[in-house]
Specification:
Helices cover 22% and strands 33% of the residues. It has helices spanning 22-27, 47-57, 127-130, 135-149, 199-214; strands at residues 36-37, 60-61, 65-70, 79-89, 92-108, 113-125, 154-166, 178-189, 227-228. Strands 1, 3, 4, 5, 6, 7 and 8 form a 7-stranded antiparallel beta sheet that branches. A two-stranded antiparallel sheet has the order 2-9.
Length: 238
Amino acid sequence: MAAAQGRLSDGAGGMDEAKGTEEEARHKGSHNASNACGGGNGSTVPPAFAAAVEALRAVRLRPQIEVEATPAPKRLAPHAYALEAAVVDGDEDLADGRLVLLHDPAGHDAWHGTFRLVTLVRAELEPEMAADPLLPDVCWSWLTGALQARGLAYGEPSGTVTRASSHYFGGLSARPSASQIEIRASWTPREGLGGVPDTAAHLSSWCDLLAQVAGLPPAAPGDASVVTLPQRRDPQSR
């Protein structure tokens, strides 16, 4: 599965760490060997975070969307869990992305909460679509619309939509020009009972966004073709 490998930040802006802001440089991190990170020095995983991760594992997804665990960033928050996904049609990846759940039990001023979701989504574009001047606004509306369609409460949404084009020359001139859209965003999910956000619904909304970016039709409510996310090992302390 070709998964998104772009760097993410935990700031309210959801911006690429490579942008080089002071906040991002301070939090720039690498990935550890496990998918979930607990607090340093062997601290235990908070029950709210463990419950949020368990809810992610129970989500039922469309069969075109392949999701798997991936190493989570170490330094964005005391606890983190990461997933990568691809929308697949036969042997072709139509879109891919990465979703990271961050948790700081002490709270985070920029988040206005103790949890934060950070995402990177990208897909290749048809030339006609890439030329649309409203495309960035449309793509951002897909993100917010996916959350609103499932009735999710969230705060502090922030991010960027980037459109890039590649043109080939010399020995590569036979290749057609290509365009890509990339959505980087973060938002604070509202917490429910026990301080646990509805991460399952947020993951489903994120998959709705992936499917829309990939050009798939909306899934019918109660679609029996969706599949359960495979179980992963428990969150671990880093």
